[in-house]
Specification:
The protein is an alpha/beta fold. The protein contains 12 helices and 14 strands. The chain folds into 2 domains: 237 residues, no CATH class; 116 residues, no CATH class. The protein has a 6-stranded mixed sheet. Strands 2-1-4-5-6 form a 5-stranded antiparallel sheet. A 3-stranded antiparallel sheet has the order 8-9-10.
């Protein structure tokens, strides 16, 4: 899981560091830089995988602009030509942290079709591995020499001291392997920002697989679930009172029975528990948008085919406030169950009411711009004092106790 993420010189972010949990919710007024935080992580993913072309970045959900306005440019601050991004990871119980950092620069700052280049990579995994290789080689040479010509200063094989040394080496190598595996978290990072027309299968907007960043191919991803996974997901769909089942019709037979007008490519259908069983089927094209958004999020957090680390921009879109609260609770549980880590932005206070700030895996951040215009973040670790009143997080936010509200009117 990503432990920290440092961003320097990206759009409105001059220099900030996030200490992340498993489910991270970001609030703040419009234009304060919430989405920039997500995009910076996408840039780190692109740097990690050598995918910094315009199409690559767009496919991850980045709003691409020419470099001169992608790199920070603040009054009174000497301009820097590069973006600096750094991640640290926590493996196992979190006792071992490994770091991965990138320096990214543009070939031509004023090119409207930017060419980004990784100028420098700092990878503590590789440096640790080099040290391990050297240590392993020295142990191998020492033990071989001791076997040929016994030396009392060298612990004999299987002695207590020898066992301690080899166990220490094994632990160090295991930590390296964990770090290398966790580095792969960045490989498939994406920012999801759902579009109802994409969820309905009416308008493909991205080509990303197995599911698009706007919700395309939700039916394809759902089809990869085995019966037990589908049953668990449908049980959670009790969030939507009218849904009794979700089915797939890959041969499009229901289309020719008149349940789909023919414009949608989605093969998803929903059964309404309140209607007669002979006529209670709705296609993705006809179902309400709320069920499509909820099904997408539950599938995203449950599937082993989706990224382990991802972001969701404006998660509350199309959802009832009370539904937002319960969705947050469900996603926090799914993230832990399926080893997912999510960064989520919202403008709906109800999302906050589903958070448990006593669980360190769930974190709330207030994003704002300081007097110089720099994006800054502040973690809310516990409910602030509201003069003795017992208020929900949503109420604390709306009454101004958390910050993250417009102040110009």
């Amino acid at each position: 899981m990503l432990k920290t993420f440092r961003i320097k010189n990206y759009k409105s972010i001059l220099d900030t560091t996030l200490e992340l949990g498993r489910l991270n919710v970001f609030i703040g007024e419009n234009g304060c830089g919430k989405t920039n935080l997500l995009e910076a992580l996408a840039m780190a993913s692109g740097a990690r995988n050598g995918r910094l072309g315009t199409e690559d970045l767009v496919s991850m959900g980045v709003r691409v602009a020419k470099p001169s306005i992608t790199v920070s440019s603040f009054l009174g601050v000497a301009p820097q030509p590069r973006i600096e991004l750094g991640c640290s990871y926590a493996g196992g119980a979190g006792e071992h942290g490994a770091e991965l950092a990138f320096s990214i620069t543009a070939k031509d700052p004023n090119d409207i079709i930017p060419t980004w280049m990784v100028e420098r990579v700092t990878d503590s995994f590789e440096s640790e591995m080099d040290a391990l290789r050297q240590r392993f080689e020295s142990l191998r040479i020492r033990d071989r020499a001791a076997a040929l010509e016994p030396d009392e200063s060298v612990p004999p094989p299987f002695s207590a001291e020898w066992v301690r040394e080899t166990e220490e080496f094994a632990r160090a190598f295991s930590r390296y392997e964990q770090g290398s595996a966790i580095a792969a978290l960045l490989n498939d990072f994406a920012i999801y920002n759902l579009s109802t027309v994409a969820l309905r299968g009416l308008q493909p907007l991205s080509r990303r697989e197995p599911v698009g960043i706007y919700g395309e191919n939700l039916d394809v991803l759902f089809s990869t679930f085995d019966p037990a996974q589908r049953a668990a997901l449908i049980e959670r769909l009790a969030l939507i009172s009218w849904v009794s089942d979700v089915v797939l019709d890959p041969e499009d037979r229901l289309k020719f029975a008149g349940y789909k007008l023919g414009r949608s490519t989605s093969t998803l259908y929903f059964h309404d528990r309140f209607m007669d069983a002979s006529n209670n089927v709705f296609s993705a094209e006809n179902a309400n948008e709320g069920i499509l958004h909820i099904l997408f999020y539950l599938t995203l957090f449950s599937s082993h085919r989706t990224p382990r680390v991802f972001a969701i921009d404006n998660i509350e879109t199309a959802l009832n406030p009370r539904l937002c609260r319960e969705l947050t609770r469900q996603l926090a549980a799914l993230a832990k169950e399926h080893d997912k880590q999510a960064l989520v932005t919202t403008h709906n206070p109800a999302i906050l009411d589903g958070l448990n700030l006593h669980d360190d895996d769930q974190r709330l951040f207030v994003v704002s711009r300081n007097d110089e215009g720099h994006t800054v973040t502040r973690r809310i670790r516990q409910k602030p004092d509201a003069g003795g009143e017992k208020l929900k997080l949503s109420e604390l936010w709306m009454r101004g106790h958390l910050g993250g509200l417009p102040t110009t009117f």
